[in-house]
Amino acid sequence: YVLICLCSCLICSSNSFAERLLAFACVEGIFFSGSFCSIFWLKKRGLMPGLAFSNELISRDEGLHCDFACLLYSLLQNQVHWQKVHLIIDAAVEIETEFVCDALPCALIGMNSDLMSQYIKFVADRLLVALGYEKKYKVENPFEWMEFISLQGKTNFFEKRVGEYQKASVMSGLQDAGKNFVFNTDVEF
């Protein structure tokens, strides 16, 4: 319920576009990071491969959405003051931490609610840096195996379903055309 209220207050309101974009980045980059992490914990142990594969696809898409929000935010002329950014990030971290602590009431081998809370703060710091701000929480990633999740893999598609994106060679000629692209926020629709 709190998640829905936060999203509707920040995204579907009269807040500035920059604030709504920050909220979108939090939804895509912080919310569910604990869930993704716990399913990757299962993958690391070779458990539930179907769920792990689905998790790869979904977390990859969420990551791309977050990257898009950060890129678009970097193009804005009127960005949000760092104190307001910290309030938005803090709210997202608090909601995600509460969710993870409720979902993980007992410690597992290599994972518990304290480590998950630290991981969520680590993810929030990474988001802050991607948005052009300094880290707030200054914590280390407690799950070293999560660093390898974002690395691009090569899958033998004869043996396994492929979960990576591949850039089409058709688009390679358009890369130079993108250099002349101008992003204009003054155009009215």
TrEMBL record:
Signal peptide residue numbers: 1-18
Transmembrane segments: none
GO MF entries: oxidoreductase activity
BP GO terms, sorted: deoxyribonucleotide biosynthetic process
Alphabetic keyword roster: Signal
Domain of life, source organism: Eukaryota
Family per record: Belongs to the ribonucleoside diphosphate reductase small chain family.
Name of the protein in question: Uncharacterized protein
Organism for this UniProt entry: Linum tenue
